[in-house]
Amino acid sequence: MDFREKLADLIIEKYDQFQREEILEIIEIPPQEDMGDLALPCFKFARTFRKAPNLIAEEISNNLAANDYFQEIKNMGPYVNFFINKELIARTVFTNLLKQGERYGSSTLGKDKNVIVEFSSPNIAKPFSIAHIRTTVIGHALRNIYKFLGFNTIAINHLGDYGTQFGKLIVAFKSWGDKETVEKDPIPELLKLYVKFHDLAEENPELEDEAREWFKKLEEGHQEAVELWQWFRDVSLQEFNRIYEMMGIDFDSYAGESFYSDKMDAVIDRLEEKGLLQDSEGAKIVDLEEYKMPPALIKKSDGSTLYITRDLAAAIYRKETYNFYKNIYVVGSQQNLHFQQMFQVLELMGFDWAKDCIHIPFGMVSLEDGTMSTRRGRVVFLEDVLNKAIEKTQEIIAEKNPSLPDKEKVAREVGIGAILFQELSHSRIKDYLFSWDTALSFEGETGPYVQYTHARANSVLDRANVRSFADILAINNEEDPVDLNQALEKGIDFSLLLEDEAYQVIKQIYSFPETILKAMERNEPFLVTRNIIELAQAFNKFYHEYPILVDDPELRKARLLLVLSTRTVIKIGLNLLGIEAPEKM
């Protein structure tokens, strides 16, 4: 039930001079809870009523009839404030949870619509560092959210497996590398070679020329270059997949930059047909001055291609292959200009679907003592972060609950969950300072806190021998309920859940479906994180104030219903974020 919609209906029923959409647009949520659940500002109506807004608010509040949806309506200055019927909102929440269970908040909104989410996309032969965690975790959460809302999602790992860096790596390996050494520990050894190349290239610039020559050979299909490149790719993917497995992430496609190497000529041909390509000192560009952007460099003077050429080919291929509704790129904000240029070039090429290509930027990750740099070897390996988080959790379990079943499994779920949750605890656009102390903290608004709340709710339900809504409705019920909805209506006294602490829990659960929708619309998983943190806080306050397993069977049923609903929604929220919900901690 959408109480905004009900409010708009009440107002236009009484005042037919207003449009429904007009009312819906201006309804607000008051800044303080004691001011109500919804508010209607009356400034906009001054001309129609020919009165001051505070007098209009007084008239509207007096004229709106008593109704089932709002238990109190009163004016506060130029606002009419509405207090939702608490018993009705409780009934609405629990009825929907009963119907949907662990699909609560899901929808068929995205039916028959394909959404591509490109995320993670590490560079082959380079470390999978903490710098990659943001794109990986944000992208995975977005994929889960879109999928939950009924979209057909295609997760693409657009591997950085092409470009001049491979010329550098080929030169480095041929000059100083050893195959057996690399195969024992691929990424760290390849990193050493890459760093050595850059150190020596500062003194010997001819190494850069040699690297460019080897990359050109790779583009031309030179046998040795291709074999080395394929080997670098294979050993890198083995390493990457181990880390993805730790985080519970998979992909539908690993088509990286190299996949489009034979599709770029068609892009260049179309650009020429459209009269968009211009010569610039031997290079090929698309002039974007009219759009207040620097020119898009399509082809270098030596004939080699660039990121934008391959990205144009990729976008066209994806439209032809998947006919996407949205083509989402989860890539750092430092690439804003690249995507603005790319989308503009697609539009100039005559592709009206360019508007469906969306860049989802996020802030940079830096270390406490400076910015990370692969070239300098200043890298924090993501696998090390995840393993240290697991070790830290194992220490806490050993200290606080040494008899916990499945200790290793729980340590992985909580340790990795702590790192992932932290990444999704802030708006994605903010820059992020990586700190070991913060990353491995298990206090405050953290993943382990929310996971522990889920485990606490589960423990209460275990003691009550309750695993489902049907179990609760069967308490003290002589007849087996055939219709659970009817049993809910007859079997639960919702007036027993109107204490403020219980109502705060219900309000958070009520807002959860809308939160998921907003997270999709804004491409901002942080909104889901925030919701389940606030739900966990509200539930823990209720848990400490009120006993659950009381003797009174009606009160016991009502409170167990609240516990089960909280557990269900926290689990859904954590899973949407790509995080496990342990049953015991």
Biggest β-sheet, characterized? 4 strands, parallel
Helix content: 40-55%
Using the coordinates above, name the CATH class of the domain at 383-576.
Answer: Mainly Alpha
CATH superfamily of the domain at 383-576: Isoleucyl-tRNA Synthetase, Domain 1
Radius of gyration: 29 Å
Beta fraction = 5-15%
Strand order of the main beta sheet, please?
5-4-9-10
Description:
It is a single chain. With 585 residues, the protein is of the alpha/beta class. Among the domains are: 3-84, Arginyl tRNA synthetase N-terminal domain (Gyrase A, domain 2, 2-Layer Sandwich), CATH 3.30.1360; 383-576, Orthogonal Bundle (Isoleucyl-tRNA Synthetase, Domain 1). Helices cover 54% and strands 9% of the residues. The chain has helices spanning 3-14, 20-26, 46-49, 53-63, 86-100, 133-148, 164-176, 179-184, 186-203, 206-219, 223-247, 264-273, 307-322, 336-348, 382-400, 407-423, 436-439, 447-463, 469-473, 484-491, 500-522, 526-545, 553-576; strands at residues 38-41, 70-76, 79-84, 114-118, 152-156, 277-280, 283-286, 296-299, 326-330, 357-360, 365-367, 432-434. Helix 18 (447-463) runs antiparallel to helix 23. The chain is globular. The two termini are 35 Å apart. The model has no long low-confidence stretch (mean pLDDT 91).
